[in-house]
Amino acid sequence: SSVTGVQTCALPICGVEYRKETNYWLPYSVGCVWSYCYQYQDIKENYELKDIIFKREPHQNILDRLDNPKIAAFSCYQWNRNYSLHLAESIKKLYPDCIVVFGGPEVTIDFTLYDFIDTVIFAEGEYSMLDLLRKVNNNESVPETYTKQRVEGNNLPSPYATGVFDFLIKNNPRVKWATSLETKDRKSTRLNSSHT
Q: pTM of the full predicted structure?
């Protein structure tokens, strides 16, 4: 079958201007989920990550960039909840066959009440997103919710090593990127880049 597009939205709190520089966080959770899914041949053959929305911008700008996406996935946090819900509703109106997925720490069972959301993923999304991509590719129905599944082990592909963020960095040369790295023992380290 033909390659279909996946849009992911991982909006930060906002861009922060510091010394006339714009800083954004690389969307680590979205990168982890996509890196996990993209390691499988059937996903590589059937899907292409078209965009990662990492900053707030007018919805129309995002809608103008879309090209009949098969799936639009949102990583929902307290600070992007309303923005993401409004954008998802607009995407569903424009592309009614697009599968709209919500996950992230802010999703609750109440998200199933929105008629423009097709499925909600609770907890870590790697296993659930892989299942969803396969179901969509095989024209199978998608469940209303995916239950909590903990990712086992520490041998997951790194979004930094798989190149998920390369196009973001290349296409946004003025952005100063902040990153989160996770070590094998799950200790988190934050880094700021001076990449321009």
A: 0.83
